[in-house]
Amino acid sequence: MMREAFAHPAVEGIMLWGFWESFMSRDKCHLVDAEGQVNEAGKRFIELKKEWLSEGDGYINEQSEFSFRGFEGTYQVIIQNKIVKTFVVQQQQQQQVVYVD
């Protein structure tokens, strides 16, 4: 359900109001049990969250450009463990090209 909701263009984010078994107002809707163990639903949520992270690696072309596809947010280009460039991907931006000096 979260994947489908987030895919809709009007949805800008998803907020969870709770996830711990002892603090939920509804039965069987928690991600972590009362002992602090992540249950099956919690594991699926963690995997989905990994899917939504933007991370890319690749090469800089002859024009000193690095291209990738990512979600809206602030990113850093890191070369040899040094931050070279910070840039922002705007909402619904079609393409982001970063020029690396």
Helix content: 10-25%
Radius of gyration: 19 Å
N/C terminus separation: 43 Å
Q: What is the makeup of the main sheet?
A: 2 strands, antiparallel
Strand order of the largest sheet: 1-4
Order of helices and strands: HHEEEE
Give the strand content: 15-25%
pLDDT < 50 stretches: none
Number of E-type strands? 4
Oligomer: single chain
> What overall geometry do the principal axes of the alpha carbons give?
elongated
Could you characterize the architecture of this molecule?
The chain has 101 residues and is of the alpha+beta class. It has two domains: 51 residues, no CATH class; 35 residues, no CATH class. The chain contains two helices and four strands, in the order ααββββ. β2 and β3 form a beta hairpin.
Helix/strand layout:
Layout: H1 2-7, H2 40-52, E1 65-68, E2 73-79, E3 82-89, E4 96-99
Antiparallel strand pairs: 1-4, 2-3
Which characteristics define this entry?
two-stranded antiparallel sheet; 2 domains; 4 strands; 2 helices; alpha+beta; single chain; two-stranded antiparallel ribbon; 101 residues
Short description:
This protein is α+β, with helices and mostly antiparallel strands and 101 residues long.
